[in-house]
Structure formats: structure tokens, C-alpha cells
Amino acid sequence: MQLALNKEKGYTKAVFVLFYFLVFFGIGGLFPLLSVYLSDVVGLSGAEVGTIMSISPVVMIFIQPLWGMIADYTQKPRLVLTLTLMGTGMVGYFFSFIEQYAAFLVIAALLAFFQSSIIPISDSIALNYVQKANGNYGAIRLWGAIGFAVSVLVVGRLAETFGLKIIFYVFAVVLFLAALFAWQLPKESQTLKVNLREDVSRLVKMPKFMLFLLATFLIFGPIYANNFYFSLYITGLGGTLTGVGLAFLFAAGSEAPFMKFASSWIQKLGILHILLLSSFIALVRWTLYFFEPSLTIVYATTILQGFSTGLFIPAALQYVRDLAPTNVRATAVSLYAAMGNGLGSWFCTFLGGLMLEKYTVSTVYGFFSVLTLVGCALTFFIKNLEKGDLAESNMSG
């Protein structure tokens, strides 16, 4: 009996590993090269490319919570995830046939519409599973970081050999494969009674939850916006395009080991201590970049992304799920993702662009430092709220 149970756990973990690897392999192969395709192959202007690339976070602000609500209302997150993966792959494939700017705007919005469901719903399923099976979310999620890092090299090499259009074909194939594995992910073991309006209303009336959404906006917004500005920062210091690729490889690859050990660190130090530590390390990184160190130091400090992102993601997701009522956890995770991936990313990218026009890219990182500092202070305030609630609970007990 125990042997059969261990085999089932091993199979489920393998499905999660392959799922995350494929999803992030697809993302890592498409989005870093999409702006190059739009500029060099299609011939769009910089402003047009920037507008197309900024559509995704704007759409995610509104659509990510909607997908979470659909998953909670239907109680079929696995089905929603499978269908949206197929939709994302299909829209990505059609990207290769578009030539007009207006059509790119429409197709980019459609891509973001379907894609915005993938990470929050899959993370919600994974967290639900590891909590029941006493597993390690970070040990599963790290394969996403590995998939992203591997795809930067593999798809980049394929694009050099076969042309940039291949990024869309690889993206479509990989996401359809991911959909097959999504259908093999664990189902919910029970049906929950959902009163969506009442439960969501309860969620937004939770002070700690809303404060943490704001902290996520301040901390994760710069982390996502860094993907747009880091290449400019490196080339501005005299780095090459090859150096840019290696920097992204080191940064994304460094997340994996930290995700693996995040669970044990959370148990030893506590979720909010880990959130404070990871956000403080992000603050150190952005502040360092503001002072324009040498390229050697910049390359060496890419590992700080492992400390910050690799620890923040597992800890933040666990904190959100622990705070949220059971029957609106997918909605809570989607709101959290919308604040970081969506609103935070758009805000930091947009204001960063305005600063870049007037000043330098190092000024942008100074702006990121200020936001992250406020996010750290807010996280510290939430930690004190938790401490006060615990003391009050012990007194009443």
C-alpha cells in the first residue's frame, strides 16, 4: 500500500516538474526575443514595439482575477488551466502570420488574455497538492526557472539557425505539450460551496491581505520591470548582446537552488522573515545598480535574483494561500499575481520609460530602490501586525 502511494506521489511530482519546465521553457523562448522579432523582422518602430510589449501587464491587471474567480466558481481549475494553455499556444502560433501593427495589438491582447491564467492557477493547484501531500513547492517550481534558463540558450540558437519566426512554433508546440501534462495534475478532492461575491468581499476586507497586495506591487513590480531594462543597463555599461544573454541565464538559473530550499527556510525562519530577507536583497541589488558598478560586479550580482525572486515567490504564494478562505484561494493567488505581474510591472515599466527619456537607466534603478524600500517597510509593518494578532490570540486563549 505504501509502495503504491509513493509511486503515485512520484508520478504526480514528475507531472508537475515537466509541466513547469515546459511552461517556462515556452515563455523564456518567446518573450525575450519577441521585441527583437517585432523590430528587426517586422520593422516596427521603438514606440510601436514598446506599446505591444506593454499590453500584456495591462490586460493581466483585469483578467488574472477573472480567471481565478472562474476556477473557484467552477471548482475545475485543471480544466480551466488546460483550455487556457491550448488557447495561449494557438494565439502564439498565429502571431507568426501577423504583419500589421493594429493586428499585433489585437493578437498581443488575446495572448495576454489566455496566458494570464496559467501561472496563478497552476501555482494554486501546486500549493494545494504540496500542502496535502506534505511536499515542497519550491522543489517543483524551481523547474520553471530551469526551463526558462535552458530556453534562453536553446531557442536563441534555433532562432539564429532557422530565423526568428521559429520562436512562435516552439512556443505553440511546448504549450500544447504542457496542456497534456496540465490535464494530469491532481484534481480537487472535495467540492466546495462557493458564494463568490460574499467570499471575494471578505477577501478584500482583510487588512493584511490588502496590505500584502500593496507590498507585492512595490517589491515585485521592479523585479518584473527589470526584465525590460536590464539588457539596456548592461549594454549601457559596455556589455555585449552575448553578455546580456549570459546575464539572464545566470539570473534565471540562480532562482532554482533557492526555490528548492525555500520551504525548509520558511519553516525555520517563518514566512514573513523570508519575505523581508528576499525584498531587502532586491533593494540591495537595485541600489547597487543605481551607483553603476563595473560589468564584472553586475554579472556577479545576478545571483542576487536567486535570493530575491527565488525566495519571494514560494513565500509570497504560501502567505497568500494561508490568509485566504479555502474556497477563494485561486482568486486570492490571481489577485496577488495581478498586482505584481500586471499592475506593478506596468507601473514600473511605464514610469521607468519616462525616466529613461529624461535621465539614465541607472536613475530607473534608483526609482526601483525607492519602491522596494517602501515595500520592505510595509512588509515589516505586516510582520508586526501578525505579531500583535498572535499575542492577542494567546491572551484570549
From TrEMBL:
It is found in: Cell membrane. The chain crosses the membrane at residues 12-37, 49-67, 79-98, 104-130, 142-160, 166-185, 206-224, 230-251, 271-291, 297-320, 332-356, 362-382. It comes from Bacillus songklensis. Pfam families: MFS_1_like (PF12832). The keyword Aminoacyl-tRNA synthetase does not apply. This is MFS transporter. InterPro entries: MFS_assoc_dom (IPR024989), MFS_dom (IPR020846), MFS_trans_sf (IPR036259). It is a multi-pass membrane protein. Residues 12-387 form the Major facilitator superfamily (MFS) profile domain.
